[in-house]
């Protein structure tokens, strides 16, 4: 097992052609997943852009036989900085995430002929463009209410109904804030780097949040003072929560039983304990 694609690729050079043939002969699946991030003809060593171009090259220049009806029986992926889908360019942090994505959205698309409309393609660029358009036109499931909507309607639906206007730049998940989207892209797709705190094991997407964390938790800064009791804290948000203790009015109402509380924090504790 390898954590990084480059380590796996380096290791694979240790295997011989005989090892490859032995493995393929014992392989029982109908589809083989192949890395096409660095693809070339093994006969004349010319570099090629993708597996479909390689097939055209082998048929035209080396006169090898190829059946369009059977197809390539290979699922092309790109193992560069993360695992990349060659059909819709989505990038995933792990190989397993990519395989699940391809099985869900691009199953049956590993032929030079489209399995849905029957159209044949001479170039990979045309074929991938066709598949991507078909993918975007298909209905996608809303993660919040299980409705199936096409991509254009889904974006408006997520924004207007669920308040999630931030779409992941690598997949079709939506988030209510830029911060949550950035965390997702770092954890799932490895497209952002987190900044590690030098004083503890925590890491953060934004440097401003890291700075606040260090000042509050490690430097123990307390620059805000309660004018009523003299209690000190780091930020205005914490002070606002504290001021609720001095307020006799219970302003926060439980959405289920109409009980009222001084703070949202107390209401949430009540809701979890009594209604969930």
Automatic annotation (TrEMBL):
InterPro entries: Znf_C2H2_sf (IPR036236), Znf_C2H2_type (IPR013087). Residues 195-223, 252-276 form the C2H2-type domain. Gene3D superfamilies: Classic Zinc Finger. Keywords: Metal-binding, Repeat, Zinc, Zinc-finger. The keyword Zinc-finger applies. It comes from Euphydryas editha (Edith's checkerspot). The keyword Zinc applies. Coiled coil: none annotated. This is C2H2-type domain-containing protein.
């Amino acid at each position: 097992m390898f954590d990084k694609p480059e380590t796996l690729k380096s290791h694979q050079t240790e295997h011989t052609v005989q090892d490859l043939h032995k493995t393929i002969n014992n392989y029982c699946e109908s589809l083989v997943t192949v890395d096409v991030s660095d693809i070339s003809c093994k006969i004349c060593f010319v570099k090629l852009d993708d597996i479909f171009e390689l097939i055209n090259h082998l048929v035209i220049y080396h006169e090898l036989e190829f059946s369009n009806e059977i197809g390539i029986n290979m699922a092309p992926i790109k193992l560069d900085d993360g695992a990349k889908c060659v059909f819709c360019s989505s990038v995933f942090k792990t190989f397993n995430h990519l395989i699940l994505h391809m099985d869900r959205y691009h199953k049956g698309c590993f032929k030079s002929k489209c399995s849905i409309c029957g159209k044949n393609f001479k170039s990979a660029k045309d074929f991938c463009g066709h598949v991507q358009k078909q993918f975007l036109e298909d209905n996608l499931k809303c993660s919040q209410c299980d409705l199936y909507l096409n991509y254009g309607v889904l974006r408006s639906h997520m924004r207007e109904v669920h308040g999630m206007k931030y779409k992941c730049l690598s997949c079709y998940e939506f988030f209510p804030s830029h911060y949550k989207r950035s965390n997702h892209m770092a954890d799932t797709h490895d497209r952002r780097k987190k900044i590690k705190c030098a004083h503890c094991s925590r890491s953060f997407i934004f440097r401003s949040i890291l700075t606040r964390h260090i000042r509050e938790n490690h430097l123990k800064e307390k620059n805000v003072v309660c004018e009523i009791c003299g209690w000190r804290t780091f930020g205005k948000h914490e002070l606002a929560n504290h001021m609720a203790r001095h307020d006799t009015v219970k302003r926060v109402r439980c959405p289920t039983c109409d009980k009222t509380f001084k703070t949202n924090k107390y209401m949430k504790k009540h809701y979890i304990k009594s209604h969930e």
